[in-house]
């Protein structure tokens, strides 16, 4: 009896956590489409994740996502300058990832501007989330 | 018997006043400030810089020491107000007062490590222990050597430099 109860709670907890980030991501994707994006592609998101962009401040150098997040999105990253630990991007290992729309937008804005020297389009943000949401 | 609670509260009072007297700068009390700033680095106490410095820092968050640290306009205003109200020139804490007296009226340092008082206090620590220390690298990581930095305690006797065999005394 006891075990059954705790298992039920365990299952509710598991699915509750899983669905909350999935719902947030779905809502974000819908919002990007309302802003003019078409259908999203995880493949394009992967290309963004791996692409180098010229460093606007230091000619000859490049910026990319890996500088702070590392190449493995299931592992913690490290802030390029301050050394502060950055929790993994992957929602399967970091339960808090993609659960707060304001947090998502804040960091898209900052990081797209830093890496690409411009804001990401709704299409690019959707492609990126599409790539990372099942990781 | 009746004097016991009174005595106890006196004891408590003196204990709390001792704690605040031991602090070097006022601890951060704004939850949003704490959360937003510490996303990338320690949430430095506003009492480390004059209000004019905080004003400039919060007005240029899109170019924050080579990073983009933009917040919403509303949050920027709220945190700028908090930092300016609690800045070194509005604080009675020991280090804040010393920082202010080390600056001239036209100095607007944007880094705490540019403040001459802070530089003077760290002058005896050799480079190999801070900038060339792979566990630290920069003077900006206060908490790396000051274990209670987040609480506003920068007491020299509690300094522990990683990789420097025990605690630091000069």
Basic shape of chain B: globular
Broad shape of chain A: globular
Topology order of chain B in helix (H) and strand (E) letters: HHHHHHH
Query: Helical region count of chain B?
Result: 7
Structural class of chain B: mainly alpha
CATH superfamily of chain A: Cytochrome c-like domain
Number of separate strands of chain B: 0
> Residue ranges of chain B: pLDDT <50 for 5 or more in a row?
13-20
Largest sheet of chain A: 2 strands, antiparallel
List the strand order in the largest sheet of chain A. Answer: 1-2
N-end to C-end Cα span of chain B: 49 Å
Total of domains of chain A? 1
Number of strands of chain A: 4
Oligomer: heterodimer
- What kind of sheet is the major sheet of chain B? none
Low-confidence stretches of chain A: none
Largest interface: A-B, 12 and 16 residues
Describe the structure.
The complex is a heterodimer of chains A (135) and B (170). Chain A has 135 residues and is mostly helical. Chain A has a single domain, classed as Cytochrome Bc1 Complex, Chain D, domain 2 (Orthogonal Bundle). Chain A has 5 helices and 4 strands; from the N terminus they run ααββαββαα. Chain A has a two-stranded antiparallel sheet with strand order 1-2. A two-stranded antiparallel sheet of chain A has the order 3-4. The longest helix of chain A is centred in the N-terminal third of the chain and has 33 residues, at 2-34. Chain A is globular, with a radius of gyration of 17 Å. The mean pLDDT of chain A is 88. The chains are: A mainly alpha (135), B mainly alpha (170). Chain A binds chain B through residues 57, 79, 81-84, 106, 109-111, 113-114, and chain B through 39-41, 62, 65-72, 137-138, 140-141.
């Amino acid at each position: 009896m006891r075990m059954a109860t705790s298992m039920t709670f365990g299952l509710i907890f598991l699915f509750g956590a899983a669905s909350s980030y999935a719902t947030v991501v779905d809502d974000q994707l819908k919002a990007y489409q309302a802003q003019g994006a078409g259908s999203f592609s995880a493949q394009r998101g992967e290309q963004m994740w791996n692409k180098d962009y010229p460093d606007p401040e230091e000619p000859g150098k490049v910026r990319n996502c890996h500088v702070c997040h590392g190449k493995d999105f299931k592992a913690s990253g490290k802030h390029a300058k301050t050394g502060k630990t950055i929790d993994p991007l992957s929602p399967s290992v970091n339960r808090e990832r993609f659960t707060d729309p304001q947090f998502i937008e804040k960091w898209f804005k900052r990081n797209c501007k830093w890496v690409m020297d411009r804001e990401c389009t709704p299409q690019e943000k959707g492609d990126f989330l599409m790539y990372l949401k099942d990781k | 018997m009746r004097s016991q609670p009174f005595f106890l509260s006196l004891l408590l009072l003196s204990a709390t006043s001792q704690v605040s007297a031991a602090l070097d700068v006022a601890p951060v009390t704004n939850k949003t400030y704490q959360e937003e700033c510490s996303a990338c680095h320690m949430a430095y106490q506003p009492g480390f810089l004059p209000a004019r410095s905080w004003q400039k820092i919060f007005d240029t968050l899109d170019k924050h020491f080579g990073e983009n640290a933009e917040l919403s306009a509303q949050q920027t205003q709220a945190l700028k107000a908090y930092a300016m109200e609690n800045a070194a020139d509005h604080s009675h804490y020991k280090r804040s007062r010393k920082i202010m007296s080390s600056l001239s009226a036209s100095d607007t340092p944007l880094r705490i490590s540019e403040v001459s008082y802070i530089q003077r206090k760290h002058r005896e620590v050799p480079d190999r222990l801070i900038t060339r220390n792979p566990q630290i690298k920069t003077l900006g990581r206060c908490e790396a050597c000051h274990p209670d930095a987040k609480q506003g305690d920068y007491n020299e006797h509690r300094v522990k430099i990683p990789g420097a065999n025990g605690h630091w005394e000069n």
